[in-house]
Structures are given as C-alpha cells and as structure tokens.
Input
Amino acid sequence: MSGLLQAASAAHSSTSSATSAWRVLRWKECAPAWVIVPIMPTEQVCPRCGQDWVHSYRFRADGAPFSLCTECDSLWWPGEAVEVAHAKFLDDAVAERLGVEGNPWGDLVWADVIEPTPDRGA
Output
C-alpha cells in the first residue's frame, strides 16, 4: 500500500464519516492506483468559530428564517453568503427585533424567541 493510501486510510479509520475529510474510493480499472478524493460535508461548518454546524432557525413571532451557529451565536440572513464578513450576532438581531438596547434576553430564553426550522423532509 502506498504511503498516501496508508495516510488516507488511517485518517479515515480514526475519524467518524461525518468529520472525515477524505475517503478512499474503489479501484478504477483504467487507473493503476486508488483514487482519493475530498468529501464535502452536507452541513456547513461555522466560518466564524469552526466549532459547530450552521443550522436553520426562525423567529417564533413571524417565522422569519435565518441561519445560526449555536456555538458562537453567529447569524446570517437568507440570501447572505455564510461567511465571517456577513455574520451578525444573535443578541444584536434579537435586540433589534424586540426594540431594546443591550442585552435583549432579560427574562427570556432562546425558546421564547427562536426555534429550529422544522425539517422540510418530514
């Protein structure tokens, strides 16, 4: 087994399939070696913190959708690229919607204001 194939195989076996960055594909009859390709995750990792996936959420009051990293509270509106340059903070968006300055939560918790968007496939 080649060094590259061994490294890819070791990396694949030491991580879960959801976080594996590489996967070894089947032998190709026309090629004299294994084909190694990067795999794109189906979910997007938060570009600001890199610690969680970006999830679909909505405001409970009117159903307005947005994307949210629940680790760092970064928020993106629909139509915006999910990039650091476009990220807003959840607290700022909630304060603006509630018409308050500073910390918008007071006696509120997330479930009072926002909720995950229901799975469209269900």
Q: What stands out?
A: The chain is about 20% helix and 20% strand. The helical segments are 3-14, 90-98, 110-113. Strands lie at 22-24, 36-38, 54-59, 65-69, 74-76, 88-89, 114-116.
